[in-house]
Amino acid sequence: MNHSLEEIVHAEKQFQQAMVNNDVQALARLIHDDLVFIDVEGNVQGKRDDIESHASGAVVQTAVEFVEEPVMQLYGESAIVAVKAHVKVRLQGKPLEAFCRYLRVWLFQDERWANYLGNCTYHLLITTHIICFIHSEVLLLEKYLFAQPHTQAFSGR
Question: What's this model's pTM, rounded to 2 decimal places?
């Protein structure tokens, strides 16, 4: 059977919608039974782990938006997708916002595409704590720079 990248785009959109809608039944259809997913902390999860995290409310994604065009390759009955997304999620009730880099391998089996392998890494974690930390470090650096005589600063030594 000949497949097209449009099928993968459609599967990715369904996957995004299922995550944002916390649609456990759709996720169960879109996730392969033998899923291997490596989360941002390096933990290996399977399909049951993924579905349970959504069903229990431990993971509630409120927004997933691709911020760049996905890189997609089709190889017969499998496809690879790499994409950067802006994600808003509640983990154990705590809000988190981040830019994430996803790598997914889709497999066509039993007349449907299913996510077989995945990985997610933080590209940039956005939290109030980090922004406050960065802001306070910049203020400390400014205070230090403007309080010190810098006649030889940046002399190349």
Answer: 0.77
